[in-house]
Amino acid sequence: MKKYRLPIIMLLVFEIVAVSLWLTKDNLFYLFNFSYIGISISLGMFLFIRKYKYARRIVQLLVGLYMLVYLGLICQENMQIEGFWYYLFTGVFEAATIHYAVAKIFGPLIFGRGWCGYACWTAMVLDFLPYKVPKEPRKKIGWIRYITFAASLIFVSALFLAKVGNIERIMFLAFIIGNIVYYGMGIALAYVFKDNRAFCKYVCPITVFLKPMSYYSVFRIKCDKEKCISCGKCKSVCPMNVDMTDNSRKRENGTECILCMECKRNCPKDALS
Ligand code: SF4
Ligand code: SF4
Ligand code: SF4
């Protein structure tokens, strides 16, 4: 039982959040929503401990499809960054704002960019592409993310300043169009740069929140220098170009780690944890 401690703790944390929000906001949705996500993540961790190869992909599909299809398309909640700005401006602390607070702003202080490895519906599709490990060196064009971040903020601000009617409807359309653009751009960039995660590295506006917060993450890959033989296998399989053999917070591309555990899985000396 001891080795399953982490998935059990994770399930308990999500249940505490689920029950607290259900009772404080008097809305059964939160109980269902956070219980579902907690069960999905715990199941993935359980399968990972059992060394099941596709554990991460299963969680990614369970959570990603739920967010995209159920929350996004059926409940018509814009869960993209525009939705976050919209609900923030209207002062409504509802699904999108709670989702951003938990998964993308404060949560990364604990679980880093776990969102990017296990839940994001954009990466859920991109990870099916053929370049799981980048085939070309990383480019210095990460500044693009600040442009997309600013564009999303300007777009929603303009809707409010122009006092456009029926913004709810526009936000839903923005969610659909935004996702089509993200998928199209993500797939094109993956092929251009021979890197499934090129969109994540250079364009995704959410990384403006994720990167600084995950710098302080509690959960991070650590290298046991006593065991490490400097074979370089771990770095060669990392989709995000992280130097996980450096234990300092300033490790190369440290804020890019999506906790996919490919490095750990491939280390011949079990030096990573
Ligand atoms: S960087 Fe953006 S697109 Fe990539 S996984 Fe994270 S949130 Fe999703
Ligand atoms: S794969 Fe393991 S042994 Fe090889 S460099 Fe990485 S941590 Fe060290
Ligand atoms: S391979 Fe290791 S360092 Fe690279 S993203 Fe995955 S968990 Fe992080």
Could you describe the 3D structure shown?
By secondary structure, the protein is mostly helical. Among the domains are: 79-214, no CATH class; 220-273, 2-Layer Sandwich (Alpha-Beta Plaits). Helices cover 61% and strands 0% of the residues. The structure holds iron/sulfur cluster (3 copies). One iron/sulfur cluster (SF4) is lined by residues 223, 228-234, 245, 267, 269, 271-272.
Give structural attributes.
single chain, 273 residues, mainly alpha, Alpha-Beta Plaits, 14 helices, 61% helix, globular, binds iron/sulfur cluster
List the helices and strands and how they pair.
Blueprint: H1 5-25, H2 28-49, H3 55-74, H4 81-90, H5 95-105, H6 108-111, H7 114-118, H8 121-126, H9 144-161, H10 167-193, H11 198-202, H12 207-214, H13 233-237, H14 262-266
The chain binds iron/sulfur cluster (3 copies).
What portion of the residues fall into strands of 2 or more residues? under 5%
Globally, the shape reads globular
> End-to-end distance, in Å?
19 Å
Cofactors and ligands present? iron/sulfur cluster
**Helix/strand/pairing category:** mainly alpha
Low-pLDDT runs of 5+ residues are none
Q: What is the alpha-carbon Rg in Å?
A: 19 Å
Number of helices: 14
Number of strands: 0
Q: Secondary-structure element order, as H and E? A: HHHHHHHHHHHHHH
Helicity, as a percent range = 55-70%
Largest sheet: none
Average pLDDT for all residues: 92
